[in-house]
Amino acid sequence: MQTARFTWPTQRAESYDRPLDDGFAIQSEIAKAIATQLKAKLSPAEKSAIEQPPTRNLIAYDRYLRAQKIRAVQTARVPADMREETRLLDQAVSYDPTFLLAYCQLAQAGAYAYHLGVDRTPARVALAKAARDAALRLGPDRGEPHLAAAWVAKDCDLDYETALNEVDIARSKLPNDASFFALPAYIHRRQGHWENCASDLERAVQLDPHNVWFLTGVTQTYQSQRRFSDAAAVWDRVLAVAPGDPSTRLWRGVIDLESRADTQPAQEAIRAVVHDDPNAVDAIAEQSLYVALCRREAAEMTSALASLPPEGIIPWNVRMPRSFFEGLAARVRNELAGAARAFTTARVEMEKIVREQPDYAQALCVLGMIDAALGRKEDALRESRRAAELLPVTKDAWAGASVLANLAIIYAWVGEKDLAINQLEKAMQIPGPVCIRFGILCAAIRVLRNL
Question: Which of 83, 269, 277, 376 is the most buried (most CB within 10 A)?
Answer without folding.
Answer: 269
